Amino acid sequence: MAVHSSDPAAVREFREPVTPAGRALLDLLAGHFQQIRDEAEEHDRNSTMLVDVFTGLQKDGVLGATVPVELGGLGVDSLYDVCLALMSVAEADASTALALHMQLSRGLTLTHEWRHGGDTARSLAERLLRPMASGEAVVCTTVKDPGGGRVVTRLTPAEDGGWVLSGRKILASMAPIATHFVVSARAEPAEGPHRSAAAMLTRQTPGLTVTDRWDGLGMRSSGSVDIVLDECPIAAGDVFLRGPVGERDDATLAGQTVSSITMLGIYTGIAQAARDFTVHALRRRGTPGAATRTLVTEIEARLYALRTTVAATLASADYYNSEFTGDPAERGRRMMFDFQRAKLMVNHLAPEIVNNCLTVIGGASYVASNPLSRYYRDVRAGAFMHPFTYPDAVDYLSDTTFDHAG
Amino acid sequence: MAVHSSDPAAVREFREPVTPAGRALLDLLAGHFQQIRDEAEEHDRNSTMLVDVFTGLQKDGVLGATVPVELGGLGVDSLYDVCLALMSVAEADASTALALHMQLSRGLTLTHEWRHGGDTARSLAERLLRPMASGEAVVCTTVKDPGGGRVVTRLTPAEDGGWVLSGRKILASMAPIATHFVVSARAEPAEGPHRSAAAMLTRQTPGLTVTDRWDGLGMRSSGSVDIVLDECPIAAGDVFLRGPVGERDDATLAGQTVSSITMLGIYTGIAQAARDFTVHALRRRGTPGAATRTLVTEIEARLYALRTTVAATLASADYYNSEFTGDPAERGRRMMFDFQRAKLMVNHLAPEIVNNCLTVIGGASYVASNPLSRYYRDVRAGAFMHPFTYPDAVDYLSDTTFDHAG
Amino acid sequence: MAVHSSDPAAVREFREPVTPAGRALLDLLAGHFQQIRDEAEEHDRNSTMLVDVFTGLQKDGVLGATVPVELGGLGVDSLYDVCLALMSVAEADASTALALHMQLSRGLTLTHEWRHGGDTARSLAERLLRPMASGEAVVCTTVKDPGGGRVVTRLTPAEDGGWVLSGRKILASMAPIATHFVVSARAEPAEGPHRSAAAMLTRQTPGLTVTDRWDGLGMRSSGSVDIVLDECPIAAGDVFLRGPVGERDDATLAGQTVSSITMLGIYTGIAQAARDFTVHALRRRGTPGAATRTLVTEIEARLYALRTTVAATLASADYYNSEFTGDPAERGRRMMFDFQRAKLMVNHLAPEIVNNCLTVIGGASYVASNPLSRYYRDVRAGAFMHPFTYPDAVDYLSDTTFDHAG
Amino acid sequence: MAVHSSDPAAVREFREPVTPAGRALLDLLAGHFQQIRDEAEEHDRNSTMLVDVFTGLQKDGVLGATVPVELGGLGVDSLYDVCLALMSVAEADASTALALHMQLSRGLTLTHEWRHGGDTARSLAERLLRPMASGEAVVCTTVKDPGGGRVVTRLTPAEDGGWVLSGRKILASMAPIATHFVVSARAEPAEGPHRSAAAMLTRQTPGLTVTDRWDGLGMRSSGSVDIVLDECPIAAGDVFLRGPVGERDDATLAGQTVSSITMLGIYTGIAQAARDFTVHALRRRGTPGAATRTLVTEIEARLYALRTTVAATLASADYYNSEFTGDPAERGRRMMFDFQRAKLMVNHLAPEIVNNCLTVIGGASYVASNPLSRYYRDVRAGAFMHPFTYPDAVDYLSDTTFDHAG
């Protein structure tokens, strides 16, 4: 990761990328912000993805941003820079950033498989990364089964030596435009223990159905629909097989962190957009009153803490992510502990900022066409992003504190 | 006001009405809750009023609840009981409660005109109250002009000795089904100072247009549309004329309090509904974790403070409202000071409760069909209800504290 | 309980007593406030009780305020009025209010024993209540054993048919001036199960030592010292024996509520005193700035919610306390559930008010001689008052919600 | 500034110094922590400085840490590292850190004078820096006049061409052991405008009196006493003369930031110490309950945001402090805007952390000998540290936002 930081203060406040590839990604994205802003409200209303925007991003190579240069991508490998890029998109539309996160974070984790995985994994990763670089492959990764914790998605052995995949996934953002799916499932081989796994499918795979419209409180343009899997045939080489189910391996916390940590930028971007909209609106109104001045000050202070905390967390994640010399379990724990502490604060600070913005703008913010009403709905998704929910985070963080931390 | 309170503890916690008429109103309402609950989601989605529900309420005499018995109404004259009734409706659907508030609070203020006003006001009030009692008159009162503070709605003298009304009003809840409108305006007579006024129009009045659908972040079934007034002819006897514009008269704070204070029940009802939904859902889930137990405790404590504070405020408002022996300006200031302090806390506590409910329920609450996602949007309207916004309340309350309070 | 309430609004905001005896108590106390205010700082510094004040209260009959008229006391039997009286003392000095609480709440619970207890309990209660009325008996009640939950204070059978009491109690407020002690202990009779008990001792009882100075963060003049009990002889008739240890009896929650609920007034009084000091100081300073106006508004709103919530809780406690017709276990649970929800909010709101006061006053409030610096320390005791601590309250309230509440 | 950072993640979380000189300073300090911890409680109680500790720090060269190597000091020039050093001292005793801050921040600003000032300033700075390096000079800088904003300390022309200094300063931390004083004053020359100035005095200067004990709510061992100045003779060369009074020069915001920003470490250190004490105590207690787990999680998350925000702010301050190529006014505004936003969040987060610690530890934390009771008092000083108070910060930050920020 080539580091480039003209202005260290800007980097500390999450205002500048840290790698040339990150800079290039931001420059590519900049050409799309106006369109995203223009289309955001209508798609939010209709709960549809900004398909035209993604077509444009595809043409510009943005969908291959995190694919290694050797495989034809932009080679963005800094989590900090990916998070910053998602923040800048989220300032225009958080739903679009959430959908884009799918593709970019998949690039990051597939690159890890390609560099460090076993033969099957390397090959499979390369078969996905190359078309991602060209924009041919748009990869939706699904993690969540319906029903609150039960595993319903399973890989069972097929007669031809491959697998059969059945089950259902929810909240599969970007699925409406995806060409490929990476589906987490429990592999139940004929012999040996059940194992964690992820199967790759193309959209044409028999038995795969992408359901209609996602209808959420917010993030309505993210295309977070369900995927139904009805005896889909999967070739043996199209499965990433991991360790036995139920076996705790803290080293895997590193990959989980990489998959999700860049989403922190999305909620930071919503808060920044809310602040900007509010300050600009207030400037047109004339002398602000006492409460407005006080709340704007609180908005500024919280936004500063939010941005610096996220910047520090992502910079540290980049460091750990490139540092393989120590104990992998300890490395995994550190990455997740940082991530979860930051996530918890993001989910305190970002909604507070948005809320204060509505308060100072007043009734005008309560009209559906006012951007603040969208921010108010979108920002609340932060608490539910993977992993963990607040109740699970309390269990995780308090256990960590009492067990491990200094 | 005949007081009836079988269980003082229940009254203190805002769980029982304080008058027999209030009891009767609650009993009438109880027959409609299931229908309101059943229809709430769809109408929220479509931004349409629950018209069938209002037809039912009309048949049952609910729309005349606050009309004096002598004029054919139920004679509910307790602000506490009206607020409690609106809370119970809001537990099923806050939008419907907001629309109903229009009719019930108008009954209260017209009754005041009928009992204490001058000849013109008494006559006009009676002409409205009698058909309200029978359900023939559904009266939408509009207060707010567009454009942030400027007055745009004016009564100018007509050649026939009456008036001509022109301008525009926003957020006129219940307008889609209203038969009559009471429109606040600035009367600009040929001679003498400009005066505050309120003009009465029927829906058939030439020049009156009720605009289409209100499209808000929440409270979407409240029918809070705009009213356009284009040279509407108004008879001289159809106008309530008040004091000169710009002349401060703190006695009028009493009427403003009566008009709006019962809305506190709406936001209390949303918080209660969120808590009930959440506790019932959690009971089905098995042993709650640490964060869930902690947040449920905070929900219960806040809800208790919310209900007892609202109960005390409304009981005091009833007392002041029936107590005319002292200085009217002082009485007005006390009513508004209590109301605004309570309103500010309602707008802290109710959204915190709803927010905690989403946090413990998790991602399921983020689906549009989950009631919590509606509560999250609806409860945010509390900060914008008339009078005052938070910035205005800070000016009002801090001035009051430094000028008058002990 | 003869109810008297000239101004219902004042009662709802915890500004007026509800019984004539309560009115009389407040009038008696009023003569002592100046002295308490004058002496508070020095005694706080030295961690000594305001002994002269208590001598004066004794002369005026205040120490017998809650003793029935038939036994020579003032006959204050309203928890609301006792709480209001403690609030008014706490506005001058919270430590003195905490010490006085000992005597007044003991009067309430002994009166209950005297009216409803068995023969031994009635006789013992009367032997304490009569000298309390005259001011001869100053009764310190001790509940807490050292060491976090273990029982270390025990009554074992003596050869003469009485008991021997050994152990240690902490946080025995008012002990330095007490003439009598009521010490909770585990009675371990020769036969039958261990039982909860409370033993009465005079200060002259052999083996009883009152330790020196209590040195706390705050509440430093409350005399909350330790009591050491080294084989103290106790007559059989000087023990209140209750049910078997470990047997859950929710009816006892009523007595626990009565013992402690009036302490809510102490923290309300601190918050009120902080607000008054602050508003008066700000009035002398000239035009307040934006933050000051905003925080003063928040102070006023929180204080209003605090006072109305406490008023409602105490009024309900009075109602339940005089209402014996239902299920005693259910009555106990209701009293405690109300009390604990109110206590939790008192411990959120009162410290927030005091904290905001320091913020607007600035550095001047940080000098030890400034009353706000004492309020800041004293108000923090609220979270630790009996029963429960915050962690225990979360367990209690969440269990109650999931088990019993609607 | 030679940068050294073995572990970037640790630097981002404010756990490692960034320069070798900073490392050396931390190593020197480490030898004193045990003594500071051992003596903190008693000196807090007596409101006396830890004089023996300062003697030890003097011997070790710590008092010359921020003096350039060329002048005999350690040459610590990183604000980040000074702040980190003060944090580590504050974890043992915040008062001692506050006193030490006086000497270390004076070294930083005198070094700036020595490198960039005019002839008089350079010479005067060197005359102070050399004995600071050797530990002979202990320099107390005083900024604050009594009386809320009025200037009472003045330099008037003396007959000998020098000056006469009269007035009074408050909150002069470390004064009890100071050998020299740098006193801000208004210079009122015979001709020309009044100017901002700072006069240097030795302790032996006639007319200078250091008053007795400072008696504060907290920070009681910081020696923050008053200085009385009664016609003290000052040589012409012993005065730093700055620009005309009342002339706004945003470039000076840089120096003001340098003087005070490292104090952020003090309040971060208190929060860290409270967290560590609490977690260690809880580990000994067995399985934590629901509220404890939830609050410990909140403590960890807030502490993480606090540390990363402070780290980012100090790192940026170091960057700006070494970067002189741009507009000095813009540079000053950036430094102060960052500092004040961070300070506001420090003053939200640190007291919340300490407060949560008391809540989970319970009544034991309320005893004066428990460290948490000291942290609770000390941490509240953060809101009052120079510049600005909260009300002033709201004015400053909201003005900045509406005037300058993006």
Question: Care to give the gist of this entry?
Answer:
With 406 residues, chain A is of the alpha+beta class.
Largest sheet composition of chain A: 8 strands, mixed
CATH C-level category of the largest domain in chain A: Mainly Alpha
Question: What structural class do helix, strand and pairing data of chain A support?
Answer: alpha+beta
- Fourth-tier CATH superfamily name of the largest domain in chain A: Butyryl-CoA Dehydrogenase, subunit A, domain 3
Task: Find the biggest chain interface.
Answer: A-D, 47 and 47 residues
Query: What is the total domain count of chain A?
Result: 3
Return the average pLDDT of chain A rounded to an integer. Answer: 94
- Count of individual helical segments of chain A: 13
Determine the N-to-C terminus distance of chain A: 30 Å
Q: What string gives the helices and strands of chain A in order?
A: HHHHHHHEEEEEEEEHHHHHH
Counting copies of identical and different chains, the oligomeric state is homotetramer
Low-confidence runs of at least 5 consecutive residues of chain A: none
- Number of extended strands of chain A: 8
Rg measurement of chain A, Å? 21 Å
Described by the principal axes of the CA atoms, the overall outline of chain A is: globular
Helical proportion of chain A, percent range: 40-55%
Into which percentage range does the β-strand content of chain A fall? 5-15%
Tell me which CATH architecture of the largest domain in chain A applies here. Up-down Bundle
CATH topology of the largest domain in chain A: Butyryl-CoA Dehydrogenase, subunit A, domain 3
